[in-house]
Amino acid sequence: MEAIGDYYATLHVPPEAGSATIRIAYRNLMRRYHPDVNPSDEAASEAVAINEAFACLRDPSERAIYDRLRTAQSTARGSAAAYRQQHATMAAWRAQQAHVAEPTPRFQPGWRDAVALGLAILWTIITFTLTAITSPVGPPSTHALVTERA
Fold first, then answer.
1. Does residue 23 fall inside a structural domain?
2. pLDDT tier, 98 (very low <50, low <70, confident <90, very high otherwise)
3. What is the CATH number of the domain that holds 22?
4. Three-state SS across the chain?
5. Domain tally for the chain?
6. For 21-42, what is the mean pLDDT?
7. Quick check: is 20 in a domain?
8. Residue 134, domain member (yes or no)
9. What is the value of pTM for the model shown?
10. Which range has the top average pLDDT, 28-32, 81-85, 100-104, 135-139?
């Protein structure tokens, strides 16, 4: 599997493994190769490969596409033209799947967000300052209540 790698071999599971088996294999491998547990560069690259394999094999539709491409690649080895065609198909599939491996950032602040945040902070400061100036400090004096009754 030169083009996309053998995801089943990466997760150490057979191609007919169920989703529960794949999930368990993924968890066990990540306990060994996660960068927080194993800081080596080899473990980091292995963790990336494990995440990529799991991202493909956990989704039934992605797994079906991968299995078809994997089968087509193994049958196309006899013909160079067929192999080149399958290789191009797998490269296109790989490019399409590139977005799965990289999470997209949820928030990308720009200058408008910075201005809005600054105005919100300024408004908060002004509001609390005015509230502190206009509100009485502490509980009302009991002496003032006694003098009002008299």
1. yes
2. low
3. 1.10.287.110
4. CCCCCCHHHHHCCCCCCCHHHHHHHHHHHHHHHCCCCCCCHHHHHHHHHHHHHHHHHCCHHHHHHHHHHHHHHHHHHHCHHHHHHHHHHHHHHHHHHHHHHCCCCCCCCCHHHHHHHHHHHHHHHHHHHHHHHHCCCCCCCHHHHHHHHC
5. 1
6. 90
7. yes
8. no
9. 0.50
10. 28-32
